[in-house]
Amino acid sequence: MTGNPHTSVRSRTVAAELRRLREERGLSCVEVGRTLGVSASKISRIETGHSGLQADDVATLLGYYQVPSVRRQELLDLLRRGDQKGWWQRQAGLPKLWRMLIDYENRAARIQHYASLLVPGLLQTGEYCEAVLHGTDESLSAAELDNLVASRMGRQTVLTRSTAPQYLAVVHEAALRMPVGGPGLMLRQVRHLLTIAERPNIVLRAVPFSAGANAGLRGSFMVLELADEPDVVHVEGQVTATFLEDESDVSRYRLALRNILNVALSPAATAALLEAIVAELS
Question: Which among 220, 214, 221 has a CA at the least distance from the CA of 175?
C-alpha cells in the first residue's frame, strides 16, 4: 500500500491507533458516528488517514473511547509534532518527494539502504551529487542545480547529529566503479566513502560483481525504521517515488535485504575493495 503523501507518518500512526481503539471496543464506524453526531464516512476517513486529522476530533474520539489521560496526551502530542516543519519543508524549490524522504530520514532510528547503480545520496560528495543531477536532468538551470545540491548536502547532517540514526548502506560494485563525472571525481568520492564508513553509526557493505544474480537486481530501496511509528520502505523510480507502509510489503523488502546481505562483502572486505578502487583510479 502506498501512503497518502499529504499525511505525515505521525498522523497515520494516530489514525491507526484510533481504528485499533474502536475495534478493540467492538464498535463500528456507524455506531461511533451516530453517538458523536457525525457520519460513519468521516470516522472511516480519519482512521485511514485520507482526512487531515484535527486535534479536536482526535481528542473527542480518545475521550469517547475512555483512553487514559497519559496515553491521550501522548497521542495528541504526537499529532502536533507531525505538523512541525523542518528546514527541508521551508526551503523553496525542493521537490515534494525530496521533502517527504528527508522528513522520514529525520524521524528514523535506523536506515537500511540498498543502492544498485549510484552511491547513496546520504554518502555522496557535493561534486558527485551535482554530476548525477545534471546527468539525469540536463534541463536544470544552474540555480536549480545549486539548490538541489545544497539540499542534499544539508540532508546528510542527519548522520552526524547527536541523535543520528544507525545507517547501513549496501552498495553494488557497479555504483562504485561507474565513472560519474570522470576518474578524478570518482577517486574523491570513493575516498569519502572510506572516511565516512569509520563513523560508529555507519556500516558500509559492497555487493561484488562476483555475486552474480541476486535479489538486488530488482532495484534500489530504503527501509526506514521509525521510532514509535510504522516502518516504511522508499522505492524511487524514474520520475516518481513510492512510500510503502503495509506490513507485508515492508516484510518482503526486509527479506530482499537479508538475501542481498548474504552475498555482500563484510565491512572489512568492502574497505579493501574501496582501497583497490582508489589504487586503480590513482
Answer: 220
Q: What is the CATH number of the domain that holds 171?
A: 3.30.870
**Amino acid letter, residue 112:** Q
Question: Do 66 and 114 sit in the same domain of this protein?
Answer: no
Range of the domain at 67: 9-81
Residue 172 to residues 104, 146, 202, 225, 233, Cα–Cα distance (Å): 24, 28, 17, 22, 19
Q: Do residues 155 and 106 touch, judged by C-beta distance below 8 A?
A: no
Q: What is the mean pLDDT of each run of 10 residues along the chain (282 residues)?
A: 48 82 92 87 80 77 86 77 49 58 85 95 92 90 85 83 91 96 94 94 97 94 87 83 87 96 97 97 91
Q: How far apart are CA 108 and CA 167, in angstroms?
A: 10
What's the structural domain count of the chain?
Answer: 2
Q: Note the pTM of the prediction, 2 decimals.
A: 0.67
Q: Are 282 and 218 spatial neighbours (Cβ–Cβ below 8 Å)?
A: no
pLDDT of residue 216: 93
Say if 1 falls within a structural domain: no
183 class by beta-carbon count within 10 Å (0-12 exposed, 13-18 middle, 19+ buried): exposed
Q: Among residues 47, 81, 115, which one ends one of the domains?
A: 81
Quick one: 25 and 123 in the same domain? Answer: no
C-alpha cell recorded at residue 218: 530488482
Please report whether residue 86 resides in a domain.
Answer: no
Domain boundary among 50, 81, 112: 81
**Rounded distance, CA 201 to CA 51, Å?**
37
Q: Which of 221, 216, 228, 218 is closest to 244 using CA atoms?
A: 221
Amino acid type, 198: E
